Amino acid sequence: MKKRLTIGAVILASLALASCGNSTNKSSELSSNSSSLVAAKRKKATSLSESKVKASSESSSTAKTATNNSTQVLTKLVSYTDKESAGPTQNYYWDNGKAKLTNFDSMKAGKYAFSADNQGRSSVAKAMLTYAEYQASKGSRQGTPLDPPSWPSTNPKVAIHYGLTDRVYHGFLYNRSHSIADSLLGSGSYTSEYNFTTGTRPQNVGANQEGGMRYAEELVENYWNTHSNSKNTVSYETTPLYKGNERIPRGSLVDIKSSDNQLNKEVVVINSVEGIKINYNNGSNDAKAYQSSSRSESSKKYVSEAPKKHSETSTTNSSSSVSTKQNSAYTTNGSWTVAASGMVFVSNSNKYYSQVTNPGNYQYISQSSAQADGAQQASRGNQYARP
């Protein structure tokens, strides 16, 4: 009997030990699982933190690169503008590698933003352009240009001789220059004075109507023409660059990149004039007063002020002379100036148009004379001229 009790006690003790062991194992497993979960959470948190740090670092690096780039470009712009130069292409712009866009991650298609710097000068203008905006802006100007900050009190008519084309422009020295063009953004381009800067005529369209800011704009227009009805977008950013506290920019950086990466370019535009010294604080200049010149006095081709309209024709001429002038006088249709039958407007690039928005920027002659001079009909139009 005593022996059986002893055996029973041993069995009970063994069972107790086994139960205790299982409990310890389960506790260890729970502890192990808990530790693994904590470790996983810590790893995830660390990973997220590292991602944020990396993104912040990349953003900071991009901003730093853009700042360094702007500083280097401004140095060149000051050199060119101080020398009254048209720059390395002689067309008031140069290509500067790939686009260096900043803070476009949160911008949606069709959106745009204009800004001023801490001195109230027009600063960065950016837009996520779409084909629909380009299509909607075709045919006519979508608004009236606004005076940019520090628009000069006087805007003289001047004569600018372009070395690239050996032509002379007669007209206003300054334009209200879009940072993002009407042809790309449409009516949205007129919503803020900070989308405009005081730009010289060649800063706006170059020496041949296809340089300056116009060169950058046409890059996008040509892209859309080969991507009709596309859902792609084009990130477009213009940054005016100022020397110190000057009120008028020495030029601008234009960064352009399409969503399919087919278009990826930075363009530097020069705000200068050949042969005219500009005060970039107030727009004053040393340009000589505009005086019309007879073509017989020079072999150069001129882009002169257009002849008077029909209502302004002198009545002192003979009836036959008056009749001839009336028949060749241009007319207006809304914002467009329309050439008379057999007459055309010839641009600096030796292309002729039948309708323009600013006749003073063209040579108004007969189509036969234009063709004899080697001019060709423009293959396509833009916001300023139509074939």
UniProtKB/TrEMBL annotation:
<feature type="compositionally biased region" description="Low complexity">
    <location>
        <begin position="23"/>
        <end position="36"/>
    </location>
</feature>
<feature type="compositionally biased region" description="Low complexity">
    <location>
        <begin position="46"/>
        <end position="68"/>
    </location>
</feature>
<dbReference type="InterPro" id="IPR044929">
    <property type="entry name" value="DNA/RNA_non-sp_Endonuclease_sf"/>
</dbReference>
<feature type="signal peptide">
    <location>
        <begin position="1"/>
        <end position="18"/>
    </location>
</feature>
<feature type="region of interest" description="Disordered">
    <location>
        <begin position="281"/>
        <end position="329"/>
    </location>
</feature>
<dbReference type="Pfam" id="PF13930">
    <property type="entry name" value="Endonuclea_NS_2"/>
</dbReference>
<feature type="compositionally biased region" description="Basic and acidic residues">
    <location>
        <begin position="297"/>
        <end position="312"/>
    </location>
</feature>
<keyword id="KW-0732">Signal</keyword>
<protein>
    <submittedName>
        <fullName>Deoxyribonuclease</fullName>
    </submittedName>
</protein>
<dbReference type="InterPro" id="IPR044927">
    <property type="entry name" value="Endonuclea_NS_2"/>
</dbReference>
<feature type="compositionally biased region" description="Low complexity">
    <location>
        <begin position="313"/>
        <end position="324"/>
    </location>
</feature>
<feature type="region of interest" description="Disordered">
    <location>
        <begin position="23"/>
        <end position="68"/>
    </location>
</feature>
<feature type="region of interest" description="Disordered">
    <location>
        <begin position="367"/>
        <end position="387"/>
    </location>
</feature>
<feature type="domain" description="Type VII secretion system protein EssD-like">
    <location>
        <begin position="113"/>
        <end position="258"/>
    </location>
</feature>
<feature type="compositionally biased region" description="Low complexity">
    <location>
        <begin position="367"/>
        <end position="379"/>
    </location>
</feature>
